[in-house]
Write a structure and sequence with these properties.
The chain is an alpha/beta fold. It is 38% helix and 17% strand. The strands form 2 sheets. The protein has a 7-stranded mixed beta sheet with strand order 3-2-1-4-5-10-11, with helices on both faces. It has a 4-stranded parallel beta sheet with strand order 7-8-6-9, with helices on both faces. Helix 1 runs parallel beside helix 9. The radius of gyration is 22 Å and the shape is elongated. It starts with 5 loop residues before the first strand and ends with a helix. The model has no long low-confidence stretch (mean pLDDT 96).
Length: 327
């Protein structure tokens, strides 16, 4: 029996640019510090399927610049049930894991909270989600790249909107939060930003502002809509908005969708993912458990996992600027 700690690492939930950078950092920092690092393929599903791979430094060579996750990610219906959580705990015990490092979002962390009720190994979370909606950290892995990708797309849409003097409604990701919509909207000079935090949305007021902007001489407008607002879908939402009595107007729809998740991670995502990955290993070595490693005011911090389930507030000051910037 080796006296080295055996630590599993996996990605769960939606993929995010920079996950590979975090994985690379965990593997190499962990091995350098004397840990036995094992990759778990396809998240919680991989635990239940016993999809384990012992890692060596070369296992993560040439991946820091790649998007997605080389150890794959998946959602696992079996793990949503108590029986599945207990089965996962028994498997981890049988394979003699001492700790887990999970890269993912709030759903991933909910899974960790359930797992720690029935498994006594060390548990560390790393915030990996393009939504940037995790409480306790200013930054989540993948957010910076997703914003850059979306803004590049918006710049191109603006060219067409301006050339044809059109109104475009652009749907961005964000089922429960408006972090992407807000930052993309401010960065692209959008005239309207509609986010879940402001629901219910006053569609009549939005339509009137669009009509007023047209009357002031604006020939093209961009309306950013977070997907959590456009219920039941963007087409139905658009119809409701554009057919407000006395305020009817025509528009074009663009859905950025999963385009925002892919691509090579930005320098910011590579930097932060690398730091968070190494810090997660340091937390394992230091005996920590039941925490997320995050970033606050550019410093690495430890946050209790239970706190990550709180609601994170958006930047209301930035949101308040929209009306003035759109005149």
């Amino acid at each position: 029996m080796s006296d080295r700690k055996k630590v599993g690492v996996f990605c769960s939930g939606g993929d995010a640019p920079g996950m590979n950078a975090a994985l690379r950092s965990i593997v190499r920092r962990g091995i350098a510090q004397g840990l036995n690092i094992v990759a778990i393929h396809r998240g919680y599903k991989g635990i239940l399927d016993e999809a384990f791979e012992k890692m060596i430094p070369r296992s993560v060579g040439n991946i820091i610049q790649t998007g997605g996750t080389v150890i794959k990610t998946a959602r696992c219906e079996r793990f949503y049930k108590e029986e599945g959580v207990r089965q996962a705990a028994e498997i981890l015990k049988s394979y003699e894991f001492d700790g887990l490092i999970a890269i993912g979002g709030d759903g991933t962390f909910r899974g960790l909270l359930e797992l720690q009720k029935v498994w006594d190994g060390q548990i560390i979370g790393i915030p990996g989600t393009i939504d940037n909606d995790i409480y306790g950290t200013d930054y989540t892995i993948g957010f910076d790249t997703a914003i850059d990708t979306a803004i590049q797309a918006l710049d191109r849409i603006r060219d067409t909107a301006d050339s044809h003097e059109r109104v475009f409604i652009v749907e961005v990701m964000g089922r429960h939060s408006g972090f992407i919509a807000l930052k993309v909207g401010i960065g692209s000079g959008a005239e309207e930003i509609l986010i879940p935090e402001d629901e219910p949305i006053d569609l009549k007021a939005v339509a009137k502002r669009i009509k007023d902007a047209r009357d002031r001489g604006k020939t093209s407008l961009i309306i950013i809509v977070a997907e959590g607002v456009s219920k039941p879908d963007i087409f139905t939402f658009c119809k409701k908005l554009t057919t407000q009595p006395g305020l009817e107007f025509s528009t074009h729809i663009s859905i950025l969708g999963h385009l925002q998740r892919g691509g090579s991670p930005s320098a910011v995502d590579r930097w932060n993912a690398t730091r968070m990955g190494a810090y997660a290993v340091d937390c394992i070595l230091g005996g920590d458990s039941g925490i997320m490693v995050g970033e606050q005011n550019l410093k690495l911090v430890k946050v209790p996992l239970k706190d990550t389930q709180k609601k994170k507030s958006i930047d209301r000051y930035a949101h308040s600027l929209i009306r003035d910037l759109a005149i």
